[in-house]
Specification:
Blueprint lengths: L1 H27 L6 H19 L9 H16 L5 H8 L3 H19 L7
Helix pairs in contact: 1-2, 3-5, 4-5
Length: 120
């Protein structure tokens, strides 16, 4: 148990340091932020994330899953009722998968706009 906790602790520290370093690099790329300010902001971000999320087990989705969600929203917006084939070619998916996406997104939209009478 102690060994696993030590590994998680090292991974947590590595994640926070990576977050700090990535933020610093991104801020330095901006013309409006000097190096000292970038370091200060990055360190504060690392501290705030540690304070807010520290001690919790967090799963970070891969970029693919995030983009798939954005893609599905875009497909639903572009869907006109008759363009399954066109959308399947554009997004390199099967027509059946386009149908599934549209159905799922429609249900989510309906649930968002029309709450159930039976929810507490």
């Amino acid at each position: 148990m102690t060994r696993e906790l030590g590994k998680q602790s090292r991974q947590g520290k590595a994640l926070l340091h990576d977050l700090r370093d990535l933020a610093c690099r991104l801020l330095k790329n901006l013309d409006t932020v000097d190096d000292d300010a970038a370091k200060q902001i990055s360190n504060e971000l690392m501290f705030q994330v540690s304070q807010h999320w520290g001690g919790q087990s967090v799963y970070i989705i891969k970029d693919d899953a995030f983009h798939a969600e954005e893609r599905d929203i875009q497909i639903y917006k572009e869907f006109n009722g008759h363009n399954h084939t066109e959308l399947s070619k554009k997004y390199k998916l099967t027509e059946i998968y386009i149908y599934r996406i549209v159905k799922r997104m429609h249900e989510q939209e309906r649930n968002r706009l029309q709450p159930s009478l039976f929810d507490a």
